[in-house]
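seq/struct pair 1
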Amino acid sequence: MADRAQASRKTTPKVVSVIGFIFAGCFGLVWTLGWTAGTLFFDAMVAKGLYDSWRSTSFKPVEGRVVSSDVKVEHDSEGDSRRAQIKYMYWYGGREFQAERLTYGMHSSADSWVDRYPANKSIQVYLDPANPSDAVLLPGLSMSDFFVPLFLMPFNIVMVGAWYMLLHLARRALTPHAVVRPRVIHDGAITRYRLPEHKPLHSIAFAAIAISFGLVFAVGFPLLIFQIKWIVPAGWLVFFGGVALVAWRTLTPLWRGDRDLAIDELRGRVSLPQTFGRTQPQELKRSSLYAVETEVVIGKDSDGDDTTERYTVLRFADDAGKLQAARIIKWDTEEMADQFSTWLRDELKIKPMTIEAEPA
């Protein structure tokens, strides 16, 4: 009975963990599907608007006249909004047409449209010869048309990131016991182990979200309030420049191998990755390596909740013969940490050594 009760206590947390994982996965999938549907819907609308604006550059100009021109004030829960309502007529192929479309791109202020196109004014209308009823007053693309794609940028990045996380969780669920191994790079007598902890794509994605979200306000207010159109290409320049800078600062140390665990077989040296506070290369004697272990650190966060951190730790003896420890990589689960530690221990062929204690 006692053994059965003990086995039941061990099984219960695993069952709860599996149920929680399934619930979180289903919730994440539903949320991601909803976010994706909304984002792609607005993406399609923006893409169609940009395409129609580009298509209108080939529209044919014809003579027309403004029938009516006024500002329509609409009331809703968010306040009042003003919209230019301009009706115009034009002639093509011996027929008379009427339309109200101003442009396919972003509209400027309602008052400016009404001032520019007063009633009874003779105007030039641009129409599609293949479909004469398709007409605009202002054809082509303008710089302000590219503000909406900038506005939607953080939503698209979150969408891609959400699917990436779901696929990552699905892979972990389907292969729960798979060992996460580093990429092994052979460079002559030096073997580099590119550790899987650092994911530069995460840093670049977070930077892209932060920059694009900030630009929504930094570009939107000058554009919508003061009609400063050159702020839009300047915003795109800041976005791509900022992301490129973060990518360069993130990827350069990775390409240089600063974050690699390197083994020099000829010199019998081990170079630790420049992580966990190590800003300069630190070399150890191959013969000084003692063990690869999993370190579990239990603490509390700012809210007082318990936290658990797991690290793969390389233990070695310094020049004085004292045992030292160097953290190599951080893990999400203890199982992953143990599996990687075992694999790395076998890969490096580390055998326990006898450390002579100093006399008391």
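seq/struct pair 2
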Amino acid sequence: MKHYREQNVLEAAKERISGVFDSFEKIICSFSGGKDSTVMLHLVADEARKRNRKVAVMLIDFEAQYKLTSDHAKAMFEEYEDCIELYWICLPMILRNAASNFEPRWICWDEDSKEAWVRELPKNAIHDELFFPFFRRGMEFEEFIIFFADWYSRGVNTAVFVGIRADESLNRYRTVASPTFLRQKEMWEGKPYTTKVTDTSYNVYPIYDWKTSDIWVYHKLFPNKRHNEIYDLMHQAGVPPSQQRLCQPYGDDQRRGLWLYHILEPNTWYKVVSRVNGANGMALYVNDSGNITGYDRITKPEGHTWKSFCQLLLSTMPKKSRDHFLQRFRTFIRGWRGRGYVDDIPDEAPRVLENAHWAPSYRRLCKVILRNDYWCKGLGLTQPKSEAYARYLAFKAGVPFEEITEEFVMQNENQPIREQKVYTTTIQEKKTGKTRIVRTTDRKKAENAFFASDPWKEIAATDAIKPKVPKQREPKSESLFA
């Protein structure tokens, strides 16, 4: 529940930033060129000038980005050059490519692919892999920022400003506002908008309670403060403010904005779609539905069951991707064996149960493949903790960086995967006849919601909560899932 105060979000953000300057010897401002980090840098730089202090500004550049974003970053750094220490980082880091099963990951600023780079290296960018003692080629972004904070702090209390907002996603809300998560994390002086990262550094989220509209109200109040003009073009292209985001364009969610490059920056467009495998096809079809992308309803070829269609799709994949999906599928099927499906899962189930994750089926597996859902989130599985996370845990536990061996990483990278226990359904109220969606992690509450609804949904609920072994079973045969 939100608790509103007399103080507006701008005053609250300034107060938080001022408190950090009072208490921390070193300060890092994380900057991406997006609307949130831009406003945050304006506020942090204003406070730094007032105190005649310098702050480190860290921009991790993922190469595949709008030219206007790069131009905006350059202009911001020139405007505040008197109060910032710049780290414009263009190092070969590994990133997700959701546009292809043949190249599921790619490396930005890779010297081996220099002729295909989307942009030229910015002036004064850090591209030397030996610049940071902790860096290694193919490092992940999440890993880099932790080690950067520790390297920069050199044992001194350091604050890292991060421009995330709670209303952007459930994950971000959990980080800064979820009571359950707040009880688990370490904070600076009990401030919920902070998170302890290493022994000497804290992440600080000064604009966590801002809405998207607050960002643009700020620019209306202070028209002389720069903003990234790519957002003006997005607005003209009809993109709603809540969907106007900047990130590397090939991620699982970000790929749906690939088509925008064609409209907003045609000169960047052809470089973006030729940079990684599958990008051009993804840009053409990502907003379609059906078998092309796996969104909404899918169909199977004539003469196929969903199981045989799933095997056909797997057989067309490169071995590495096929083995990855098979491992995830086996985990999924094993989980349902303990819930009544002893021999096998059904070919299909009622769509309302499949969509709510209340019943397994081979149709769900097909949908995951067609969507190129690499971590199988559509099956309720979670992304395993990465190699980067294993290194972070070791580092946080006090293991020196040079002692974090590959053997240690191998022992810690495989984390248990389980089905998310989130129950979702649409019910119809008897009195009003209105339908509403119920989402809950409380099993009993989900049962009660169903039982208070129409009789047919009561039956569906019973089947979902206590799955029964299907009466008609497919004859046993050799299978990829054995």
